[in-house]
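question for whoever is on the cluster today: can someone run the full assembly for these? two chains, 634 residues total. i dont have access anymore since they changed the login thing
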Amino acid sequence: MSSASLRPGGAAFNALRLGFGTLVVGFLLLPLVAILPLAFTDSVFLVYPISGPSMRWFGVLAESQAWTRAIVNSLIIGTGATIVATVIGTLAAMGLRRELVPFSGLLRSIFLLPMVVPAVVLGVGMQILYARMGLASSYLGVIIAHAVLCVPFVLVNVASSLASMDPALERAAASLGASPVEVFRNVTLPLAMPGILTGAVFAFATSLDEVVITLFVAGPNQTTLARQMFSSLRENISPAIAAAAFIIMILTFVLLLAVKGASLIGALRKKREISGL
Amino acid sequence: MREPDSFIHFKAISKVFGAITVVDALDFHVARGEFVSLLGPSGSGKTTLLMMLAGFETPSGGSIHVDGRRVEHLPPYKREMGVVFQNYALFPHMTISENVAFPLKMRGVARTERDTRVKRALDLVRLGHLADRKPSQLSGGQQQRIALSRALVYEPKVVLMDEPLSALDKQLREHMQLEIRALHRDLGLTVIFVTHDQGEALTMSDRVAVLNRGKIEQFDTPSGLYDRPRTRFVAEFIGETNLLAGRVAGRSGETATVALGTGASVTCDRGAAFETAQDVIVSVRPEMLHLVQDPGADNALPVTITDHVYHGDHIRLHLACGESHLVARAGRRDAAPPIGSKAFASFAPGDCSLVVP
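^ ran it for u. tokens below:
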């Protein structure tokens, strides 16, 4: 093999890239591929080989008060946390750019802290705090706790979409007669929207997936889907868990698809406009 | 003090960033309908001055008056100025007509009137047919014209332009210069134009303020700057020049006699501002310098021709005069003297300027 083909663009380089890419994708996807078919087993055990296809475990989920409750809870808490985190994260990203605020670097780090602080530490802290504030075992408490975890995702996404925006645009709008509120509504917000939407999807997915903090702050009434899966794993390993995992994945997947679809439609529209030249 | 023709008045205006004084106590007037360029190298304070007028920077001292009213504490959206930015700053998520309609919408102009005025503003820059496109589908020159049209549509008191043509290629830039000049003339606009391109400032402006390190070196008409520079900076920054260092040997009225460092002596008609024994620099433009064989000609300096370079429309002669190096322009029909030959470089007393060293 000539060394020339190992350079970027060479045949060997491309083959190497393809091989490595396949490995990474496999590493990420195989666990999911392994568990998902078990959602459709007719056996009572979470084991291969699958004796026969069946939807019985989805039926179990639908009939079980605990599971349906968990799904509804996840939707309520996920939606609430997403709204709170999106509003706070978006405003934070807007306020923290351009270093208008003193200690903006420090403030940004504080907003991003929930990403690096161990969930257990956060959970213990929140549990103590909530007990004093009377927020323990309440929907509001869980929503706030999840929102704290979700804010960094929104902040990072909105910040990057603001960073790609020409700062002269807001100045132009102001010079053309737009008050700060009008500038925000007509220029900043629409241009930050892709970042806000992406951040919101990440926020929802994070909330859907969150177990540790939920264990600390949620009461029996706020059991989420992820937490329900976690506790039933300890009791009995039934294929109902695989079915629940399937539901979580479908939910997340649909969300991602929605965002992708929105940006795809936008790109298509742009393309059509350009070809209309 | 308010001069009768003062439409915009910068009064002792300063801007300090930390330890750096970017604009240093400037005081000048712009008349209604005037096209004024702020010209200077980067860091001279020209953009800061413009941004203070637009309302994006707050002066550290002094005041700005527009049409008799103090504006320096008004937010940008209350100043009624049309700003054209360097990179156009068209809103990417709006169509061209939405972009141009934006200032009207902000002012609550009714839809039907808005449509009429947008159409008129687009026709003004001859881009009416692009109304439904997005900015990304337009070329740089077209975007520039849309930015201009958007800044003009609400008939602002003043149009501010921050190096609006610097992103365009040379040919398009020259075309846009003519177009902006025509708009200025036809609409009677008051324009403040920031540029670092001296050619652009000379061709477009009624008057040019040459800025250097936060100070105005000279505020004059283009021909005033070129023919009668008052400082060394202006003489060197505007066009090309030959500088001859010397000392005033005597003066009678306007005419000063300068003893050059080379030992020669020259006379200059514009020496009223200088005293005897004062150090000065004589500035002579290359095209004012003529090669002659007669040592008795006006201000004849003995020179040796070191090189001549063909430039198509003219020939540049490089001359050695003692220690200093001079450049002269010769017409393309003139025979270039051979390299190494000796001659005299002569200029009329009225064709040079005395500047402060």
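summary bc i know u wont read the tokens: Residues 240-355 of chain B form a domain with the OB fold (Dihydrolipoamide Acetyltransferase, E2P) fold (CATH 2.40.50.140). The two ends of chain B are 32 Å apart (CA to CA).
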